[in-house]
Amino acid sequence: MKKGDAEKIINLFKIAIWTGVLVYSACSLIHSFREKEKVRLILSDSAKSELSLSLLKKIKSCCKAALEEEGITEKAEVSLTTVTNGEIKELNAEYRGKNYVTDVLSFPMSEEDEFDVDPETGRVILGDIVISAERAREQAREYGHSFEREMCFLATHSMFHLLGYDHEISAEEEKIMFDKQERVLRRLGIYR
User: Fold this and answer.
1) Residues 13-47, buried b or exposed e (16+ Cβ, 10 A)?
2) 166 vs 155, which has greater pLDDT?
3) Nearest in space to 127 (alpha carbons), one of 168, 99, 160, 153
4) How far apart are CA 190 and CA 49, in angstroms?
5) Is 12 helix (H, G, I), strand (E, B) or coil?
6) Whole-prediction pTM
């Protein structure tokens, strides 16, 4: 081996080591940032491919604001899935006994107002939000506002279901829940 070849190999090793250090630092920074997030949104593949990054950020802000509206300070985790009208109709029939298309379904992970906590992250596991993006687009057209506004409304609505509200119980419960939703959306500047 020539002297020049040995120096090239040493330089390549140095570059590889520095690259490894930079990748490790970036991963640590991302992990650290994720741990500081108030709400971790776990996305299905459909949500990742169907929703823009800016919309996902707004949905996450809605989830965080709903927690703040309730005075919840713990870090939380919520799963978000988007489906078609056909898929949500099947879920609605299976889990609620209602054989029609709906816009959003909420699957709380609480029992008697007690939530599980992920032992690895210490996050409260609130549950799952399933939104028919197809129905959200239809409703946005019907109500004359944006798809983004409709998705934020549905996510916020579902968050309050995950937190124990049920507008089908009584008119009073419905008013409380809907007032909270509107306060969250107004605070974030999301209007019809």
Assistant:
1) eeeeeeeeeeeeeeeeeeeeeeeeebbbbebeebb
2) 155
3) 160
4) 23
5) helix
6) 0.79
In terms of phi and psi (left: phi > 0; alpha: psi -120 to 50; beta: otherwise), the region of 90 is alpha
Q: pLDDT per residue over 66-85, tens digit each?
A: 999 999 899 999 999 999 99
Q: From the options 1.20.1730.10, 3.20.20.80, 3.40.390.30, 3.10.20.600, give the CATH code of 38-187.
A: 3.40.390.30
For residue 61, which of 175, 155, 163, 144 has the smallest C-alpha distance? 155
Domain range annotation of the chain: 1-36, 38-187
Tokens of 91: 């879920």
Mean pLDDT of 43-56: 95
